[in-house]
Write a structure and sequence with these properties.
Oligomer: single chain
Distance between the termini: 24 Å
Number of strands: 6
CATH class: Alpha Beta
Number of helices: 3
Number of domains: 1
Shape: globular
CATH superfamily: NE0471-like N-terminal domain
Order of helices and strands: EEEHHEEEH
CATH architecture: 2-Layer Sandwich
Structural class: alpha+beta
Length: 86
């Protein structure tokens, strides 16, 4: 599992992420912000800009408790909401 080490807001909904393997990726996260936890994050740039690295989880998070899996951010996995239930 990858871990995010640094995050920087580049533009509205675009983040520059530095991963534990040294790779850097600019990610438009807007398509990943689905569900009730992300409603506040989508409501405006104020909360979105408060993104931080949660070192315990190894990924990015927001003060309201929303987070995105680091493997999804790196492009290696699909978000859970895209996988059909069995």
């Amino acid at each position: 599992m990858r871990e995010v080490k640094e995050v920087q807001v580049m533009a509205v909904f675009t983040l520059r992420l530095v991963f534990d393997d040294g790779s850097v990726r600019d990610v438009d996260v807007e398509p990943l912000l689905r569900g009730p936890m992300f409603a506040q994050v989508l409501s405006g740039p104020g909360l979105f800009a408060q993104v931080f690295v949660d070192h315990e989880l190894g990924t990015i998070a927001w003060p309201n408790g929303a987070d995105i899996d680091a493997d999804v951010l790196q492009g290696g996995e699909l978000p859970a909401w895209t996988v059909p239930a069995r």
